[in-house]
Amino acid sequence: MRCLPAGVLVSIVLPLFFIGAPVSVSAQSANELRQENERLRARVAELDSQLQRATRRISRLETEIRKLRQSRPGAEAPEGTPRDGNDPGEVSADLPEDPFSAPDSMYQALHKEYEQELGAEPRETAAEIGRFKRKAQGWARKAALRHRKPVQWLLRVIDMQPGEGRQELVVTLAVLNQQTRQPIGVPFDLTVNRRETARFEDAGKNALVEIAGVFAAKPRYDAEAEASGVFNVPRLVGPYVVFDFDLSINSLQVIQEIEE
Length: 260
Description:
Layout: H1 6-71, H2 103-118, H3 126-146, E1 148-162, E2 169-176, E3 188-192, H4 194-203, E4 208-217, E5 220-221, E6 236-238, E7 241-242, E8 245-256
Antiparallel strand pairs: 1-2, 1-4, 2-3, 4-8, 5-7, 6-7
Helix pairs in contact: 2-3
């Protein structure tokens, strides 16, 4: 059997090696595209769900506002209500400064803190954006640890709707000033579990209740949330940080029941 010279073997093997290389790269690229497509589909589904919840909430609140205006034509706007012409995510300066007065007060406090720490940070180039995102992620984590405290709130039960999970309830609530009983900021939705569902159902819609619990800010890092979307959803503390909170109710006392 004849042996081929080493140079001839090299000239045969190398082309075969490079012929196979593009196949591997192509397969890897296709896999990456599939993963990116799945990620985008999940993101679109999440945003669609947020939009539907926001639309339902706006519809409920518009109905409630019409009822309030009919029953109290000369009533003043709630403390901290966005004024005509303002950005939907903004609240007026007459909100209580204590961030634990209401969710809108917490949002306002977090927004100020965010601007003080990250407002001047550059984010023009890809490298600057990368650094900014890392700082925003760290800021959100630290802010969540700083803002947690027991609270006692006077609340108006505005609406109750079934939640997504079994035996869950989405309750629309307004925090009221303890002395004037005027709303502080705008109403908010709270998803409650089975035990709390029974409490609110016993109280009934439009009831005035006093709760004791723990209120905690939960600012959340979101690499895709550079700016607010439709209806200011998600509600941004600042670029890449979304506002959220948690209210754990320990006790609930009905102060007044109002028939619809």
